[in-house]
Every structure is written in C-alpha cells, then in structure tokens.
Amino acid sequence: MREPPPAPDPLPVEVVDNHLHLDHAREGEAQVDVGAAIEAATAVGVPRMVQIGCDLPGARATIGMVEQYAALLGGVSLHPNEIKRFPSRTTLLEGLAEIEALAQHPRVRVVGETGLDYFRTGPDGIPDQQWAFRWHIDLAKRLGMVLQIHDRDAHDDVLRILDEEGAPERTVLHCFSGDLAMAQRAVEAGCYLSFAGPVTFTSAGGLRDALSVVPLDRVLVETDAPYLTPHPWRGAPNASYLVPITVRAMAGVLGVAVPTLCEAIAANSERVYGSWQ
Q1: Could you tell me which of 266, 246, 140 has the C-alpha nearest to residue 196?
Q2: Residue 248 maps to which CATH number?
Q3: What is the separation, in whole angstroms, between the first and last Cα of the chain?
Q4: Residue 78, Cα to own-chain centre: how many angstroms?
Q5: Is 162 a domain residue?
Q6: pLDDT, tens digit, for every residue of 8-59?
Q7: Domain containing 155: what range?
Q8: For residue 2, is it within any domain?
Q9: What is the pTM of this model?
Q10: Is 95 helix (H, G, I), strand (E, B) or coil?
Q11: In the sheet that 72-76 helps form, which strands lie side by side, from edge to edge?
C-alpha cells in the first residue's frame, strides 16, 4: 500500500470535484473514510464533490452519503461494464428500474456514469451497452437531470448516439479522453468536458491539445478517485484533495491564471449541478 501524496497548496478560489467514487477502494487499499476525505479536500479549496455510484450497491451507498454529508451531491447509473453482469434483459430492466427510483432522490443530480466502454467489452457486448446508454440518456431527459458519460475507446459511437437520441441540456463527458477534433465536436454539441489526472501525464500531449480548444465556460475538473492520480503521484491513491494539482496543470495549458480557471470551474459546476444547499 502506497502512502498518500502530501497535500498541495490550496487553490485561491474554491472548485468542485465533479466525479469521484467514495464507495470504491483500489485493490490492496483501505476503504475511504468519507468524512476525512471531505475534510482534506475542503482544506485545499475543494469543499464540494459529486459522488458517483455506478452499480447497484454503489448507487444505494451514494444515497446514504448524500443524505449524511452536505458536501456531496450524487449520481447513479449502471456503468457500461456492469451491463454484461446481468444474465438477461429482464434482470437488467429490474436493475435499471431501481436506478430510476434512486435517481429521484433530491440530492441526486446526475444520471451516470453511463456510456460505452469498448476496452473491456467484446463485439458481442456492444449492442447491450448501446441499448443501455440510450436508456440512460432518456432517463436524464425525462427527469431533467445531468448526464455524465463514460467513453473508453468508443468516441465516434458516443457522439453518434448522443446525436441520434438528442443530448440532455446538461451533458458532461467525464474524464475526457478524446483528441482535439473530438473536443471541438463535443463543444459544438453543447457538452461540458471534464478533465482528470491524465491531463498531467507526460505522455498525454494529445489530451492537452484537446483541452486547449475548450472554452472556459465548458471546462470542469474531477479526480475519478480513487483512480487516475495526477503526476507526479501516479500509482498512489487518488482523492479530491489532489484536485489543485490538476487545476494548475489545466491553467497552464489554457494559458489563464489559476484564479481565472477556478472561477470558471466554480461557475460551470453551479450551472450544471445547481446548489449544494
């Protein structure tokens, strides 16, 4: 088990970690103390987070967290890689019905993460993933909620299905992983693009190129904790208190002052998710 990285210098303006998994623990790591994680993040200027539960146990746990902690809003869904775990369409529909019921909690603002993941899914699993993605898009629109999208090795199909179904008014491409051309297409479609630790990786020049063309009024930041820890702490456990590292790297790519980017992220987060009160 690696030691947690030290806390970075606090941000000058508070921002939101718009995607993390406080119900997850990486292999060999202890379960997160939610209260301590919130306290550590608040100390560096990240006092609000969006907790994402993307399987049935995680979605249920998310409800308990958002009821207990004022710092958290929630998102619920079945992750693309969860779809294949259901033995039949009937059992999948039962799981989705529970997600729909949980999504109506007043502190749940997000349907997601949903989308497509072709990295772990073979050709036989793609039709069911695409069907479930369309179902989640419809749910977000019916409930007037934010849609958060997971996209791994499926850029063209994600944008095609969003276009065919009609994207919800507030759609976030979480942990954006596309190239410059995809970023431009996503912005033109009205999406928000959320960047995580990989934008700091030395090998991620293409991702930084993508960030460079995103307008300030479409940028969000996240950890995807406990995964995707920013450089130079890659491989260590990630948490919301490390958001300042990613924000400062993003400001450098965008050519803006850190306070300017923080103000934009804060305003975008409020516009997308509403008030945390």
Answers
A1: 246
A2: 3.20.20.140
A3: 36
A4: 14
A5: yes
A6: 999 999 999 999 999 999 888 888 999 999 999 999 999 999 999 999 999 9
A7: 16-273
A8: no
A9: 0.97
A10: helix
A11: 16-20, 48-53, 72-76, 108-117, 146-152, 171-173, 192-195, 219-221
Q: Which stretches within 154-242 are classed as H helix?
A: 155-165, 180-188, 205-212
Domain presence at residue 3: no
> Token digits for 179?
């190239």
The total of structural domains in the chain comes to 1
Tokens of 200: 């700091």
The verdict on residue 95 lying in a domain is: yes
Q: What b-and-e string marks burial along 63-99, b requiring 16 or more CB atoms within 10 Å of the CB?
A: bebbeebebbbbbbbbbbbbbbebeeeeebeebbeeb
pLDDT tens-digit map of 49-82: 999 999 999 999 999 999 999 999 999 999 999 9
Q: Cα(204)–Cα(146) distance, rounded to whole angstroms? A: 28
What is the pLDDT confidence band of residue 1, given thresholds at 50, 70 and 90? low
